[in-house]
Amino acid sequence: METSKNLFKELENAEKLFSDGSIKNAQKIVRNAIKDSKSLTKIPNKLRHKLNAAINKSKYFDEISSFATNPKRDELITKINKLISDPLKNPKKHAHAIHEIQKQWQLLDASSKAASRTQWLKFNELTNKAWETCKEYFDEIKEIKINNAKERENIIKEISSYVERNEKKWPDSKTLINYLRNIFKKWQTYAPVLDDDLNRLKESYFQVKKPINDEIKKQEKLNKEKKEILINKVNEINNEDNQICINEFKKLKNEWVKIGPAGKKNDKALWDKFNKNADRFFAEKKQIINDEILVIKDLNKQLINGDKSISDIKNELSKLQNSNNTDEFKKINIDINKEVLKLKNNKKKEKIEIYKNIYNALLDNSATDPIPNIFLESIKTSHANEKSNTKELSYACIKLEILAGLDSLKKDAELRNSIQLELLSSKFNKNNNSIPNDIDSILKHFISNFSCDDEGRTHQNLWKRINKCFEVLL
């Protein structure tokens, strides 16, 4: 009776493994259960039904596996036939081609249901026939397979040592999963092996990993329970202040992140449930954000239409606390920067035009165009001049060109060098009596040495060059 109960529990375990996708492990338990059931004098009906259901499920997965892999095996048989009918001229390359096909066949056996006896006999017969054209290379390949088997035995020993070192205090499941993943990559590197070694190594590999797999399942079960507790805690959050509820949920979320995996199948479902239980906290906040987005859109419209100043819009945006990460908030800030840049450019253009109009004021004392107050006294001085000092006019023009990084005329090279030397020395000599190096001071110097009485093409050309400097310096 006790054996019957044990078998029933084993079959329930197999059923869970089938559900979790651990097909190979489940099928092994079913095979053992079939073997153990034969020792019972009488099998209870409930156990018989359970056993038959498990056998049928195992056969179903075998059929699915065969359905997926048989076409691939047929393809490998076709490749072997091709090598028999049309051998590669280079024996070494021919042997490697056979070796590669055998490797793929064995990997299929390792990852799915083993080939049927008929398939295997046919493949083995064809492989032996394909080898006949490169017998001299066969021993070398056989040696490779023997060495691969030795390396796999070393891997098995490595896993065994790992288990011994860690079984008293296992690392977390994530570390164990990564370890097995890396070991499997290493295992796959050493293929193929001799057919006589394949099943033996495969079984040893499975058995030596079992304690690690069992520990992973154990930890995943505990992690699942921890995550279910956090899900329940989310349901228990209840406060009139919605922000307090959100903060409590965030604390639980931080705890969740620290918990390891609960299994591929469980993790997503648990995560979705955890977040869904918190949706009620964010519904109110979402509405607040949506309301703020409407305000932002309206402000953006007023910004583009010029209905409200940039400072007023910035002031109103500063009152919005919940929508800072929305696309609408980012967009209005981009548009604000564009408008600020546009205003700066417009102010620059206006200032340039005002400075360009200085020349008109020099020619006509009654010119009504706005002129910066800083130049009015110098303009009066210029009107009193009977003659222009063209050397000083050129000096002012070239100095502005140097400051603006513009080229001067070739004929001005000597004067330009002199001014550059003056600019350099003024950096080290604060008591220098030369004209200050700002645009307004240099313009005042130009104006003070200008006379409308002898104004001509020379004056006009110099002013054109100065206008170009305005584009850079203002």
Give the topology, please.
Elements: H1 2-20, H2 23-37, H3 45-85, H4 91-111, H5 117-131, H6 135-166, H7 173-189, H8 195-236, H9 242-258, H10 264-276, H11 279-305, H12 310-317, H13 327-356, H14 358-363, H15 376-384, H16 390-404, H17 413-428, H18 439-448, H19 457-473
Q: What would you say this structure looks like, in words?
A:
The chain is mainly α. Among the domains are: 57 residues; 54 residues; 117 residues, no CATH class. It is 78% helix and 0% strand. It has 19 helices and no strands. Helix 2 crosses helix 3, helix 11 packs parallel to helix 13 and helix 16 runs antiparallel to helix 18. The radius of gyration is 44 Å and the shape is elongated. It starts with a helix and ends with a helix. The mean pLDDT is 85.
User: How would you sum up the global shape?
Assistant: elongated
Q: Find the count of extended strands (DSSP E, 2+ residues).
A: 0
Termini separation (Å)? Answer: 101 Å
Helix content bin: over 70%
Query: Which stretches are poorly predicted, pLDDT < 50 over at least 5 residues?
Result: none
Q: What is the CA-based Rg, rounded? A: 44 Å
Average pLDDT number: 85
Which class best fits the helix and strand makeup?
mainly alpha
| Percent in strands | under 5%
DSSP helix count? 19
Main beta-sheet strand count, sense and barrel state: none
Order of SSEs, N→C? HHHHHHHHHHHHHHHHHHH
Summarize the structure.
The chain is mostly helical.
Key phrases:
single chain, about 475 residues, mainly alpha
